[in-house]
């Protein structure tokens, strides 16, 4: 497990942030239904740079222009080599390891009635101790692929695994050298071009079974609390969650480096996630080992290891 920083190395947290963390810890110990939704900000400490810094960013525009199924179909070779291998499936992503924030979330999910929905395709949550039944990678996962032929089994139901893209290398390039160029991988079933198992900007959450959208909707519907971590609230799943939370009066927490005024109705925890989540873990353990909490909530008590 990643090392947790000692108290002396953590960023000081203000009173409001500490109060919000304490409130969430009590709700978790009480066994309320909590859905965590994580975004790109969580993986920055793992060395993965988010492409969406601000709304008018050139980098963001490049990704949104290329990151569509329509653009892929126009020229699969250019799409793979000019876009995907330069922005996502590259050493920065493939060599990344879970950071302290990922491991803290895995520990927190040992509490009852907790679920995790991640927007990140970097596979880092799946490399921690998060139970598979508690995790949905709603935007897909690196290393898995899908077919573009509508009636193919790999188009909407199943995923393809390619352990090593170097097998498709052209011009003697390699992934390790950072200049990999590939011949377009083809579907083993129908021989059409395949694309990464990611939710692209012109695709729906219901477009493939891997995204598990019905489960996400069920989790959101039955949750008492939403906890957003490192997200910019600029994709469908976060917008849906916020709208549902506001409509039904759910408690919502935002763990981020800043408090977005557009989401002033959320309870903000402004700090690096490694610090705020470490404190949340400590609060949970403290509450769980308090005899009064054990006596009052005997069937919901779950000791975090």
UniProtKB/TrEMBL annotation:
The active site is at residue 139. Residues 14-287 form the Deacetylase sirtuin-type domain. Pfam families: SIR2. Keywords: Metal-binding, NAD, Transferase, Zinc. One of its GO terms (molecular function) is metal ion binding. Zn(2+) binds at residues 147, 152, 187, 190. GO terms for cellular component: nucleus. It comes from the Eukaryota. PANTHER family: NAD-DEPENDENT PROTEIN DEACYLASE SIRTUIN-5, MITOCHONDRIAL-RELATED. This is Sirtuin family. It comes from Carpediemonas membranifera.
């Amino acid at each position: 497990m990643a090392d947790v920083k000692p108290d002396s190395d953590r960023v000081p947290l203000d009173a409001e942030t500490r109060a919000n963390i304490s409130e969430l810890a009590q709700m978790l110990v009480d066994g309320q239904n909590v859905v965590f939704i994580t975004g790109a900000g969580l993986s920055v400490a793992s060395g993965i740079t988010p492409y969406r810094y601000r709304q008018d960013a050139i980098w963001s525009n490049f990704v949104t222009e290329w990151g569509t199924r329509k653009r892929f179909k126009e020229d699969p070779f250019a799409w793979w080599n000019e876009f995907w291998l330069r922005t996502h499936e590259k050493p920065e992503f493939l060599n990344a390891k879970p950071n302290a924030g990922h491991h803290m979330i895995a520990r927190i999910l040992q509490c009852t009635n907790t679920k995790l929905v991640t927007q990140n395709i970097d596979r880092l949550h799946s490399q921690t101790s998060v139970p598979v039944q508690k995790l949905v990678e709603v935007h897909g996962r690196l290393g898995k692929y899908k077919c573009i032929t509508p009636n193919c089994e790999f188009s909407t139901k199943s995923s393809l695994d390619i352990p090593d893209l170097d097998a498709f290398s052209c011009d003697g390039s390699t992934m390790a050298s950072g200049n990999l160029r590939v011949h377009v991988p083809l579907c083993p079933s129908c021989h059409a071009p395949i694309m990464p198992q990611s939710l692209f900007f012109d695709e729906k959450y219901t477009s493939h079974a891997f995204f598990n959208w019905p489960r996400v909707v069920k989790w959101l519907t039955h949750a008492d609390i939403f906890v957003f971590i490192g997200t910019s609230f600029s994709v469908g799943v976060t917008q849906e969650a916020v709208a549902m939370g506001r409509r039904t009066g759910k408690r919502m927490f935002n763990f981020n480096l800043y408090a977005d005024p557009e989401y002033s109705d959320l309870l903000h925890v402004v700090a690096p996630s490694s610090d705020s989540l470490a404190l949340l873990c400590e609060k949970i353990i403290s509450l769980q080992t308090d005899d009064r909490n054990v006596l009052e909530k005997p069937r919901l008590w779950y000791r975090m290891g």
